[in-house]
Amino acid sequence: MTPVARTLEVLELLQSAGVRTATELAERFDVDERTIRRTVDRLRDLGIPIEARPGRYGGYRIAAGWRMPPLMLDENETVAVLAGLLAVPGSGTVPTGHTATATATAIAKIRRSLPARLAARADALLAAAVVGSPDAAPATDPEILLTAADAVRMRRPLTLDYRSGEDVLTRRTLQPHDLVAHRGRWYLVGLDSSSRQRRTFRLDRVRALRPLSGTFPAPAEHRPLEDLLAGFARADYRYRIDLRVRAGYQHIRDRLPAGLAIIEPLGDGADSEIRWWRVTIHAQRLDWLPPKLLALECPVVIDEPAELRDVVRAAASSLAAMAGCDQERPTPS
């Protein structure tokens, strides 16, 4: 990291929290404390009032009341921000939850600050845009989201009060590794101190989040989004579905995404585009699977569970009945 980049990062960290110690900042940037002191001096030379608090709980902080200069956006940047806010779930006329309310007020503030010509164009965008409703996702408290982000960035352990999908409230201690947004939800992934296993938590189910003292080592190199989706596909649900599917890999993956299915090659044919694959799905219910299997439009063999074969037969019977194969079609009146 260049000295300029480190200086900007230190400024951002000092703005995001109360006090940062020299030791904490040195560990964060993998430099010595003397380098941090030089970085702080560089910020002071730029006119930023950074105070040093002595003592055991001392450190650096920005003087109370100091604010960065106003953010200036050009015309294209303003339109891009508005378009992005419009696409946030719940940003319409009837917002629900913390995020939706904040999004609606942010749009209103940006609109009021625009010059007349650009305001007219923004009004056209706000009036004409029709934003489809995504799958309903519970709102995440912004304070919990920001606390989680700070802990991930600074490698600080957390305690969290978590309500599971079965409505069971537990308290966990976590080394947070990743903060991932997927399909309208935020997920916090890290090392659970009690089980010593990586665990995934939906932030909208977190009731309280508190940072602890100290830091933890950086996790091994990994791919946060890919690991999250793989965890979804391996989740411990009621049924494990084992299929054999003959098609190209991408053909299957386009219809069964990474968060849903594990796809592995079977036997020979590694160099062939069309071949047999082992597809594994974990699911709590089976009733939604027949349409998914039909959409594959290729040979599929159901190995396990036997209950899925019964569900597919029942679905096929219903479809045949709808097509009039098993009964006379009613005469229109």
Task: From the structure above, extract its key features.
alpha+beta, Arc Repressor Mutant, subunit A, SH3 type barrels, five-stranded antiparallel β-sheet, four-stranded antiparallel β-sheet, 11 strands, globular
Report on this model:
The structure is a single chain. This protein has about 325 residues and is α+β, with helices and mostly antiparallel strands. It has four domains: about 5-60, Winged helix-like DNA-binding domain superfamily/Winged helix DNA-binding domain (Arc Repressor Mutant, subunit A); about 75-130, no CATH class; about 140-230, SH3 type barrels (Roll); about 240-320, ACT domain (Alpha-Beta Plaits). About 40% of the residues lie in helices and about 25% in strands. It contains eleven helices and eleven strands. It has helices at about 5-15, 20-30, 35-45, 75-85, 95-115, 115-130, 140-155, 225-235, 250-255, 290-295, 305-320, and strands at about 50-55, 60, 160-165, 170-180, 185-190, 200, 205-210, 240-245, 260-265, 275-285, 300-305. The strands form three sheets. It has a five-stranded antiparallel beta sheet. A four-stranded antiparallel beta sheet has the order 9-10-8-11. It has a two-stranded antiparallel sheet with strand order 1-2. Strand 4 (about 170-180) and strand 5 (about 185-190) form a beta hairpin. Helix 1 packs across helix 3 (about 35-45), helix 4 (about 75-85) runs antiparallel to helix 5 (about 95-115) and helix 4 runs parallel beside helix 6. The longest helix is centred in the first third of the chain and has 17 residues, at about 95-115. It is globular, with a radius of gyration of 27 Å.
